[in-house]
């Protein structure tokens, strides 16, 4: 119930507060697990990713957010689970693998944290690890304009143009390193950029 209330509220909010358009939602698989992977330039991006996915999807969220009782309860209701940033969190990765193996889509930002436009080379192996361990396809997503709607360091939202481009699922052959897969995911994401 919490998930779907949040989903519809987020959709209504984004369409009222922003000039918001989504392209390629037909590319989202109707069943089975996949990694829903995107670039990450704004704190709005997790909200955007949850609102554009037509399937109930799980999320990583930094563990500090779960220390606040109500926020932690709400995040768990939205299928978010805590991850310790800055070092490998085996418990979070294990939970992510379990979710994917049980058919649940998972939102993931391969760059690990927000990255300013022009710093796209910052990619971590976590996404590659999950794909290699589970064999799930990746649905690449490129978000354009969210950093203008909510700039880094601010909590204010401006009525900016935000476009979301969802690509076709991509699979990676066995034998590639985690780093190679992660880089391949980011390449697929940036190919969706209209610029």
* Number of contiguous helices: 7
Distance linking N and C termini: 39 Å
Which ranges are low-confidence, i.e. pLDDT below 50, for 5 or more consecutive residues? none
CATH topology: Glycerol-3-phosphate (1)-acyltransferase
Give the averaged pLDDT, no decimals: 89
CATH homologous superfamily designation: Glycerol-3-phosphate (1)-acyltransferase
Describe the strand arrangement of the main beta sheet, using strand numbers: 1-7-6-2-5
CATH level-1 class = Alpha Beta
Number of strands: 7
Q: What CATH architecture do you see?
A: 3-Layer(aba) Sandwich
| Pattern of helices and strands | HEEHEHEHEHEHEH
Radius of gyration: 16 Å
Describe the structure.
The chain has 195 residues and is α/β, with parallel strands linked by helices. The protein has one domain (2-190): Glycerol-3-phosphate (1)-acyltransferase (3-Layer(aba) Sandwich), CATH 3.40.1130.10. Helices cover 36% and strands 17% of the residues. It has seven helices and seven strands; from the N terminus they run H-E-E-H-E-H-E-H-E-H-E-H-E-H. It has helices spanning 2-17, 45-52, 69-77, 90-101, 126-134, 146-149, 178-190, and strands at 19-23, 35-38, 59-62, 80-83, 106-108, 138-144, 161-166. Strand 3 (59-62), helix 3 (69-77) and strand 4 form a beta-alpha-beta unit. It is globular. The mean pLDDT is 89.
